[in-house]
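Morning - magnesium ion inputs below, output right after.
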Amino acid sequence: MAKLLDPRIEKVLITQKQIEDATTKAAKWIDKNYRNKKPILIAILKGAVPFYAKVLAKTTIDVQTDFVIYTSFAGNVKSIQEPKMVTDLRLDIRGRHVVILEDLIDSGKTLKSFIGVLKKRKPASVKLMVLCDKKCKRTVKIDADFVGYDIPDKFVVGFGMDYQEYMRNLPYVGVLKKEIYETNLAKINRRNKK
Ligand code: IMP
Ligand code: MG
């Protein structure tokens, strides 16, 4: 039986079927571009986990996996600090082909900063794959090499994306109802003005 829509969700933006389609396409993209290159697929925790896992299981070439926590978010609806490395990679990426998988690119600050850190380690190449792209929110110049879906300027949750660490387990990507975060957002804005 189909699950009921979570009451905190205003609207589903990316359905489970669309997630299947995008992740199949993403895996084929990796297979095609990295045959015999043994790339390192990097997931940025935690949001990228469901997207990463699905794509990983659909790839057929030899890949290695690694994970980082690199974030500017503190569990709210706006980034409130400079992005930083919280947990680093285990593998040495020097001379290796690196593919970053991320749930969502918004302002682009997190990924731009993370890619800058990786490039200092002299990888053979760095490419970026995202499930969702909020192009209208970009404040720095950065483009993903693979985009699942372009999405509008709405706060979204599900399939890895969270609001205060919740709702990452929704099987679709949906727009969070404003009333869920409005009071909180007002508090953050007040705090940021101080
Ligand atoms: P950026 O540095 O502004 O591009 O922020 C990227 C990160 O912010 C994403 O990887 C998400 O973790 C988080 N983020 C941005 N917008 C949303 C959203 O609408 N829902 C949930 N997380 C978001
Ligand atoms: Mg993220």
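Note: The chain has a mean pLDDT of 92.

O.
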